[in-house]
């Protein structure tokens, strides 16, 4: 977006003072306003998150390793509330090829699920056999990379967001030259030595293991401890706890001033991070959606809000709602629900920032925006207007992510 000073000069985002966000080197009477002054949304930038400046970038390609229509798990293991007609959560599994622009080095963020889930841990294999987990994989990530012209031998590292089965893939399919990167707190006990472990011995053998110790880093971005993976500001790994010990997210710089926040399982549905007051400020909901959600969103289908009484007959008011519609489920796949909520609150600042596109690993609302065809490059998301289309898509009744009505016909 170009803005115009009162002298008629066109201004780009980096022409603004980093202290006060007023145009610099243009206005002769440039002064810093009081700190309490709220800045217009159009001046918000990645600087507000504490992201260091850099011209180094990566290219990010998103893959989807499943047919979301064929996948299902019990929604109440992930989120709440869950309406009577929304018991199943159907979702994609996004994985990412990240190419360092300067060096050409390739790394992966998350590997998806393996095709032979019956050969994973007994608990997962039993859930698959019983139908509690339905996750058919026609072509896994390694095969999809090959279809895309990328051979496993060219991957320098595989980065796990965390150690759940639908993110770790089958590392044994990569050569020994592919390092395995993960958060330092990731549980590393393996079967069969430890019968209750979530990892198999083959997941951690035959390659260099690179645990990221965030306590060794003084860098923080958006409230999260950060690690500069390539050392040039193009790829940051963030310590985002709550879902599982060692859970990390990736912040990728796809242009010098725009980013993708690869969220892993920090949240499973975007209704767990939206809306927020900051999001309303940066991306006001369209009037048509404000009107339609008064009738389409049932108050029984959303989490209680301290500022809104959901025990009334009043229609849902999206403009007045400033807390996420869905909450983290207790006793399910989230290891530490309170910590997960704290992480989600911090992610809200990234989500409201016009320079950052948040991509959760299972965000079905993005299927028709990033896709429907995969693999798909994320590099030009900002100029393509994807964020403006994506932010409120989950509340459109025609979107597959909509789960807030009184009834829904299962497919």
Characterization of the model:
The structure is a single chain. The chain is α/β, with parallel strands linked by helices. The chain has three domains: 1-33, no CATH class; 58-259, 4-Layer Sandwich (Metallo-beta-lactamase, Chain A), CATH 3.60.15.10; 270-362 and 382-395, no CATH class. It is built from eight helices and 21 strands. The protein has a seven-stranded mixed sheet, covered by helices on one side. The radius of gyration is 22 Å and the shape is globular. The relative contact order is 0.16.
Topology summary:
Elements: E1 3-4, E2 10-11, E3 58-64, E4 73-74, E5 79-80, E6 88-89, E7 94-100, E8 106-109, H1 122-130, H2 141-147, E9 155-159, H3 165-168, E10 179-183, E11 190-191, E12 199-200, E13 209-212, E14 220-221, E15 224-228, E16 235-239, E17 248-255, E18 258-262, H4 277-282, H5 287-296, E19 327-328, H6 337-352, E20 356-359, H7 367-370, E21 376-377, H8 386-390
Parallel strand pairs: 8-9, 9-10, 10-13, 11-12, 18-20
Antiparallel strand pairs: 1-2, 3-7, 3-21, 4-6, 5-19, 7-8, 14-15, 15-16, 16-17, 17-18
Family: Belongs to the metallo-beta-lactamase superfamily.
Keywords: Hydrolase, Metal-binding, Zinc
Protein name: Metallo-beta-lactamase domain-containing protein
């Amino acid at each position: 977006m170009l803005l115009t000073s009162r002298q008629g000069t066109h201004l780009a985002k980096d022409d603004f003072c980093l202290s006060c966000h007023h145009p610099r080197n243009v206005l002769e009477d440039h002064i810093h306003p009081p700190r309490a002054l709220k800045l217009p949304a159009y001046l918000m930038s990645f600087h507000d998150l504490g992201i260091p400046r850099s011209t180094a970038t990566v290219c990010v390609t998103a893959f989807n390793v499943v047919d979301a229509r064929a996948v299902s798990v019990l929604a109440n293991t992930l989120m709440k509330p869950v309406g009577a007609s929304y018991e199943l959560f159907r979702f994609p599994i996004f994985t990412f090829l990240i190419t360092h622009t300067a060096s050409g080095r390739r790394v992966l963020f998350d590997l998806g699920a393996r095709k032979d889930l019956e050969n994973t841990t007994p608990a997962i294999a039993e859930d698959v056999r019983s139908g509690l987990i339905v996750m058919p994989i026609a072509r896994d990530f390694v095969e999809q990379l090959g279809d895309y012209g990328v051979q496993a031998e060219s991957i320098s590292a595989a980065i796990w967001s965390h150690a759940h089965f639908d993110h770790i893939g089958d590392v044994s399919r990569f050569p020994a030259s592919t390092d395995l990167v993960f958060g330092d707190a990731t549980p590393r006990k393996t079967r069969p030595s430890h019968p209750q472990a979530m990892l198999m011995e083959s997941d951690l053998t035959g390659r260099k293991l690179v645990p990221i110790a965030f306590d060794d880093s003084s860098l923080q971005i958006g409230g999260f401890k950060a690690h500069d993976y390539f050392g040039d500001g193009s790829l940051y790994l963030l310590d985002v706890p709550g879902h599982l010990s060692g859970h990390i997210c990736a912040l990728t710089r796809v242009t010098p001033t725009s980013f993708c926040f690869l969220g892993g399982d920090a949240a499973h549905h975007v209704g767990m991070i939206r809306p927020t007051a900051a999001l309303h400020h940066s991306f006001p909901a369209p009037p048509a959606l404000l009107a339609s959600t008064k009738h389409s969103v049932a108050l029984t289908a959303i989490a209680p809000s301290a500022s809104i009484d959901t025990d009334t007959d009043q229609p849902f008011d999206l403009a007045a709602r400033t807390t996420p519609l869905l909450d983290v489920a207790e006793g399910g796949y989230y290891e530490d629900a309170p910590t997960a909520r704290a992480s989600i609150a911090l992610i809200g600042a990234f989500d409201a920032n016009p320079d950052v596109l948040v991509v959760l690993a299972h965000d079905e609302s993005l299927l028709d925006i990033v896709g429907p065809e995969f693999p798909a490059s994320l590099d030009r998301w900002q100029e393509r207007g994807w964020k403006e289309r994506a932010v409120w898509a989950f509340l459109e009744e025609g979107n597959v992510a909509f789960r807030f009505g009184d009834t829904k016909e299962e497919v």
